[in-house]
Amino acid sequence: MGSSFENTKTRKAHIGSRILDMEVSCGRPDLDSHGAYMGVVDGSTPYGDIYGGGLEADFPVAPTVVADANRHTLASLTSTTWNWMSEFFHTTSHPVGHGFTQANLDQDLACYSFVPKADIPIKFIVLDDTVKGPDQPDYAVGALDDTRYHWLVSELDAGQAANQLMVICAHVPILPQNSLTDTTPYPMWPGPEYTDDYVLNTLHRYPNLILWMAGHRHVNVVTPQPDPGGDPTLGFWEVETCSLRDFPQQFRTFDIRRNADNTVSIIITNADPAVQAGSPAYKSRGYAIGAARVYGTYPLNDATSHAYNAELIVQLTPVMQSVISQAGSAIR
User: Fold this and answer.
1) How far apart are CA 100 and CA 102, in angstroms?
2) For residue 68, what pLDDT band results from cuts at 50, 70 and 90?
3) Which stretches of the chain are DSSP H helices?
4) Rounded to whole angstroms, what are the CA distances from 71 to 105, 135, 140, 305?
5) Are 89 and 149 members of one domain?
6) Pair type for strands 236-240 and 221-225
7) pLDDT (tens digit, 9 = 90+) per residue, 192-243?
8) Same-domain check for residues 187 and 45
9) What's 163's domain CATH number?
10) Predicted TM-score of the model (pTM)
11) What is the CA radius of gyration of the chain?
């Protein structure tokens, strides 16, 4: 489930013949425990039947699969990112590395930034905010260590000094609301030092930060992050997007526009991918809806789209209003 750091036992299980055996747990299990075979997905069956799963006591002989040395995890005993990043350099598409550079490998740091258009003052900061290293309490939430926190601050400092609008792209949201209707904060970062509130306080120092983009929770939710002191230029928007594996299986587009009054509009739109009736993608849509019903994600009488389209307005400082007034044409 991604809630524990790989160890020798799990890494051997990936390539070996014996199906992984450990305790039954909905949280972070003891990887060296035993009690139940985790089972494997039979990809040759239409619905991905589970083979070899169940309590250890119910199997007179341990269930096995064919061993395969190529079926391995990209996580090493010391890093979850280095092997993963290196795979992006073995490609026939461009750019080689897909944003990662040799410096990322040298530092084992899966963070980078880029300016997509030289004549448009906007910078994208790609932040790896997943839990790192062994012996952490929970790998299914977000976290920053010293290296990544200070990298983020340096990128924000540089973007602010260069008069660039800034967008943070991360997997885990910072402090989203629970749902479309429940505005209760949902803490995602355990700390101990870089808690969600701590990082939020840091982010509110940068008036040029306009957006935090995230996934992780598989929901379409928009959360405003206003400045606690009431300065409208120090707030930003947080936008979460669902995955193509879940209902409603939509893409998200972000259209960032300058308005005539030199505010900025972030127009977010969910888009349905075109699928042909009877195709695997068409079947997948039905399975996603069915799974959401079976697991109680949505009530049976919920027929709403669960899309989230909006125009999010950002108030800029006088300096940035002057800067962006020279960029492109206002939409209205």
Assistant:
1) 7
2) very high
3) 8-15, 82-87, 102-107, 146-161, 196-203, 280-294, 318-324
4) 23, 25, 23, 38
5) no
6) antiparallel
7) 789 999 999 999 999 999 999 999 988 889 999 999 999 999 999 999 998 8
8) no
9) 3.60.21.10
10) 0.91
11) 23
